[in-house]
Structures are given as structure tokens and as C-alpha cells.
Amino acid sequence: MHLCLFEDDRAPALYPLARTRATYDLRLGRRTLLQTTRDAFPENTATLLHARPLLRPVTAAENDLDTPDHLPDGADVLFVNGRFIAEAGDALDALREAVRAGEPRAFLAHEGERPTLVAAFVPSRATADLPPGPLARSALTPAAFAELPETTLPDAPLVSGLPDLLGALEPALRRDFAAHAGGPDGREPAGADLSDGARLVAGERVYVAPGATVRPGAVVSGADGPVYIGENATIMENAVVRGPVYVGPQCEVKPQAHIEASALGFYCKVGGEVEGSVVHSLSNKAHGGFVGDSYLGRWCNLGAGTITSNLKNDYGEVSVWNGATGEVEGSGRPFAGLFMGDHAKCGIGTCFNTGTVVDVFANLFDPEGFPPRYVPPFSWGRPRDGFGEDGFTPYRLEKALRAQRRVLAAVAEGRATNAEVR
Predict the structure, then answer these.
(1) Where is the domain boundary, 158, 190, 216?
(2) How many domains does the chain have?
(3) What pTM does this model have?
(4) What b/e readout covers 381-402, taking b as 16+ CB neighbours within 10 angstroms?
(5) How many CB atoms lie within 10 A of CB 366?
(6) Which domain holds residue 204?
(7) DSSP character at residue 183
(8) How many Å apart are CA 362 and CA 241, to the nearest integer?
(9) CA–CA separation, 8 and 111 (whole Å)
(10) What single-letter DSSP state applies at residue 370?
């Protein structure tokens, strides 16, 4: 069986995080949506990826997988929406049963007023019933599988908007630890460096990978949830890490940092207080400040003293910008902080209001006030000083690329030794 993860026409609802990556490359916890789905179907013999045309080359390269424009000959194919969370439950059971039975079927859910294609199983004998070239489409919708029998999955877990990524974080951290090859027992394997004076609390739920270091005075607690510390990561002196937490390979958790219920992708530098948040990879919040209930993309940098508000004073529902509608909408959550797209940065002392969305390549500095709730791509400075329609100065493309070339040069020189850039 071939497994094909696809994008549908709702990807803009996950902008800015999905502006520069396929939806299934969004990190949930230790694993991305793609990795979680692949692990849920270990019987698949090959994985294919469908992505928006602009993203296909980089998606194929980063995942080392094909993004073909036609179905393989003679193969059964299970199509799975890239926004589907492959967690244990009725929806996942239904997909597995379809594969076992070998009968063609489309699985739908309802998000708002129209149906969403969750998945479709197409045995090789039924591929002739499909419209021509489904993988060549920019998005797969129920229309592509209209000839198949349909089943509705009323409770299919889908990432419908940015706030859903926050709700998925803690369950994913616990699920990912249980799925780890080392099992839920934790332990310190050969090659890990647990210094004298470092303390593991509920150490049976703490995994310290080979090459990782926990320095004197650091406390790593699995009492409230598991902790996974990746290869060559460093937990520095007097830092506190309270599970569930994932610290990715080559991460640095700075002295006196407080990390709780969060996922840090590879090669991140994190200090201060981080709670209930995802830092995708290759991003820095190296200094004091607070980031709570937030999601940072790749190559982001937060200046010293950056603070995100994650709770309104009236304890009401936080509203968040929706890239599909261009409007600020209710999130259904009382807690939501900052959502920052790839390559965005902010200067020292920046404060963000609840539910702020900063789009890709924005570069902000405004310690005297709050940026607006939505900051467009390539915004520069602070809104009251600029001349653009939104008040910001446009960030010139060449200047933005020059800054990124400096970062990539550091990677090439070995200061960021994991150059996979996923």
C-alpha cells in the first residue's frame, strides 16, 4: 500500500505557518503531522506527498519523498489529509478498517458549512474511477473522489486553524513519548551526560538521548508529564524543564530557563519562560521574557525581554486572525499568545497582545507599544513610523535575503551543525 498525504483548499487558514510549508510539515510535538501519520500506518510500502505547486520542490527535498503528479501503477493508495491528526480513536480505526477490507471509500468531515475530505482509500482496481490527474491539482477536495462510496467521520481530529495547534500540543507530547523506540520507561542511555548536581524527578519518564547534557543545578521533571531530551541537546545550569516537554537535537536551554508543556525543534536556543508553546526549529528565544501558548516557525528570533500575553484580563475567548478569511475570529480558547511565521523577528522589549499573528519575514521593533493583532509579511519597524498601507515600512526583499544569507553562512560554518533545515 502507498500512503499519500495531501493538501486541501483550507491551507490558508493555517497561514502564516503554512505559507512556507505543507500543512503536514507542521510540528505537533516531537513529530510533525506527516511523521505521526506515517507511524500510524507502518504497513505502507511508500509515502507520496501532494503539495501546493509552489511548495512541491522544497517539500520533496526536505522530506526526501516524491511529490508526483500521477498515481503509481498497480498500487493501492490511502490518501490522508495533511491536517488530520492520526491519534487513536474512531476516525483512525475507520481508515485502518478500510485498508484491511480493501474496498474503495472516501471519508468526509464537516468544517463549517461544507464537507472536508479527511481520507480516501483507492485500491488499484478503482483508480480508473477517479478523475484524471488528482495529484496534479493544487488542492484535493471531495470532488476528486466523488465516485467512491462515502463515510462521514463526525469527530475526525483536524487542524482547522492556528489555535488547534495549541490544543494538539500536550496530547501529542504524551503520545510521541509513548511511541518512542525507548518506550515510556525513559532512562539515560549510554553516551548521555547527566552531571553531578543535576536532578531528574520521576526519572522513569525522562529520556536523555546520547550526546545530550544536563548540567549541574538543572531540574528535569517527569512528574506531570514525560520529557524527551534529544541528541546533543544541552540543559544548562539551574534550568527547570517540567514535562510534558520535547527538547530537540542540538537545542540549548539557557541557564535559569523555565520550560513547561512545550516542544522545541532542533537547534533552538531558548531562555526565560516558555509554556504551552511550539518552537518549530532553528529559532531563538535565548533571553529572558515570557512566551506562552504560542507557536513560532523556523528561523525566528525574539529579542531580550520579549513578552507574549496569552490571557485576556476578562478571561474571555481570545480571537485570532484567520488567513483564509482575512478576519480576526474567535478561537474557542481562553489562552492563545503569539503565532509567528518563518524568518520573522522582533527587537528587545517587544510586547505582543493575546492572539497576535506575525507573518513571514516581518521585522519588528517597538518597545513602546503593542504591534497590531495581525502583522503582514515583510513588515518593517513599527506601524506609526512607516508609509505602507498598514503603517509599516515594507521590508525590502534584498535586505531580508541578505540577513538570511548570514544565517545560512553560520550553518555552513558549522555553528548550526544540523543542516537538514526541516
Answers:
(1) 158
(2) 2
(3) 0.93
(4) bbbeeeeeeeebbbbeeeebee
(5) 17
(6) 164-412
(7) -
(8) 30
(9) 12
(10) P
